[in-house]
């Protein structure tokens, strides 16, 4: 299949391009580089031996997207492009609503116009909010009160409504849990700008010595060791989940959790990182972070049964690969 991958030079998108190419699909990347670099295309080519087509373009630009669709006639779209910083979405909500909703609508419109029947959307476990764990696809959505989470729930709604009146359309909503790690080559991975918001990139910065210590946000949650529990998933497992999703796409709306089904606490992740990489991560317990929930992990049975996909890589591998990427990438930039 020929897959149009928006956000394909970003963290999850780049790993998915690698897995698509490794599985003999062709790839066209559209990315405006607001949070990634064009050099990623070359790195994807180094890993796979195949260079994807790349357009530096904005997925909200209808005329450019129309041209790309009519020129290449893709079989499917995987829509990763989006803004994703929860805190920033509270500060500049309009930018988040505009970018995340408009890109989805423009792409969907072009799918209908050009007869593209497969649409895979990057959603997030954030749509479950404070439901009871493990999160199940059938639960009522309760996006936490931040504009980022709202954009994910709204895009899911838009895609579902449009699919209902276009029965030939296949919409797959993939709810990611906490993607971490990197490709084993160390050539692609997560490289956030500035001080990281998320746990794993923060840990790698501490390991590198760029940040002094990790702040553990609260140890008084109702969890086994009091720190927050999350379902960390290796980004390559996540990428493989996308290949399974595009290959099995069938008309209608399909929702899948992509996680491991296992919860890991902040302290457990620190210990795993130390053991996997044989180094020490200085940390200090601080106040809870506003908006955090105690526990977030997936029920993964639906993806296993319907897509035949399960995550294979464990926390040790996630920590080892995240650190390898940091060392290789940091040595080059
Ligand atoms: P990322 O920022 O690394 O990748 C997103 C890419 O989209 C970037 O390369 C950026 O330049 C591009 N982009 C943004 N707006 C664009 C636009 N209008 N037109 C073209 N390109 C645009 O983020 P990621 O971690 O790879 O996340 C990919 C998707 O998965 C996002 O939609 C994100 O919300 C979602 N998601 C991520 C996580 C996570 O923890 N990383 C969790 C759940 C869901
Ligand atoms: N944490 C710390 N210190 C830090 C950073 C995080 O203790 O410096 C803790 C958090 O309190 C939480 C856990 O580590 O308990 C994980 O936090 P992350 O920020 O890495 O991830 P979140 O689960 O809070 O959020 C992520 C994405 C969201 C997405 C959500 C669900 O950032 O965009 O997963 O998919 F919505």
Characteristics:
Rossmann fold; binds uridine-5'-diphosphate-4-deoxy-4-fluoro-alpha-D-galactose; 11 helices; binds nicotinamide-adenine-dinucleotide; 3-stranded mixed beta sheet; alpha/beta; about 40% helix; about 325 residues; globular; 7-stranded parallel beta sheet
Word description of this protein:
Helices cover 42% and strands 18% of the residues. The chain is built from 11 helices and 14 strands. The chain has helices at residues 11-22, 39-48, 62-72, 86-91, 93-114, 147-164, 199-208, 235-247, 266-277, 301-307, 315-332, and strands at residues 2-6, 26-31, 53-56, 76-79, 118-124, 170-176, 178-180, 214-217, 229-230, 232-234, 252-258, 264-265, 283-286, 295-296. The strands form 4 sheets. It has a 7-stranded parallel sheet with strand order 3-2-1-4-5-6-11, sandwiched between helices. Helix 1 (11-22) packs parallel to helix 2 (39-48) and helix 1 packs across helix 8. It starts with a strand and ends with a helix. The structure holds nicotinamide-adenine-dinucleotide (NAD) and uridine-5'-diphosphate-4-deoxy-4-fluoro-alpha-D-galactose. Nicotinamide-adenine-dinucleotide binds next to helix 1, strand 2, helix 5, strand 5 and strand 7. Residues 6-7, 9-13, 30-36, 58-60, 80-84, 99, 103, 122, 124, 176, 178-179 line the site of nicotinamide-adenine-dinucleotide (NAD).
């Amino acid at each position: 299949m020929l897959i149009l991958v928006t956000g394909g030079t970003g963290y999850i998108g780049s790993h998915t391009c690698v897995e698509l190419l490794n599985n003999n699909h062709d790839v066209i990347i559209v990315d405006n580089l607001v949070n990634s670099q064009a050099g990623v295309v070359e790195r994807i080519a180094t890993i796979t031996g195949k260079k994807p087509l790349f357009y530096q373009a904005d997925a909200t630009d209808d005329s450019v997207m129309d041209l790309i669709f009519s020129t290449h006639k893709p079989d499917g779209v995987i829509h990763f492009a989006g803004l994703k910083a929860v805190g920033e979405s509270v500060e500049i909500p309009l930018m988040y609503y505009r970018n995340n909703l408009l890109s989805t609508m423009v792409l969907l419109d072009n799918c209908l116009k050009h007869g593209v029947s497969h649409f895979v959307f990057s959603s997030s476990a954030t749509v479950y909010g404070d439901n009871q764990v493990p999160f199940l696809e059938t639960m009522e959505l309760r996006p936490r009160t931040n504009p980022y989470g709202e954009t994910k729930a709204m895009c899911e709604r838009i895609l579902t409504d449009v699919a209902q009146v276009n029965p030939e359309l296949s919409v797959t909503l993939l709810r990611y849990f906490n993607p971490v790690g990197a490709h084993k080559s160390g050539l692609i991975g997560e490289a956030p700008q500035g001080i990281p918001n998320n746990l794993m990139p923060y840990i790698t910065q501490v390991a590198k010595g760029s940040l002094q210590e990790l702040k553990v946000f609260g140890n008084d949650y109702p969890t086994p060791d009091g720190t927050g529990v999350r379902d960390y998933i290796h980004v390559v497992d996540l990428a493989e989940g996308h290949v399974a999703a595009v290959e099995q796409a069938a008309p209608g709306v399909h929702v899948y959790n992509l996680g491991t089904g296992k919860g890991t606490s902040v302290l457990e992740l620190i210990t795993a990182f130390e053991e996997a990489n044989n180094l020490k991560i200085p940390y200090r317990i601080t106040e809870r972070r506003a908006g955090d929930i105690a526990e977030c992990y997936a029920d993964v049975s639906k993806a296993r049964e319907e897509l035949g996909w399960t995550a294979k890589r464990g926390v040790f591998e996630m920590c080892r690969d995240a650190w390898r990427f940091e060392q290789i990438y940091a040595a080059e930039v």
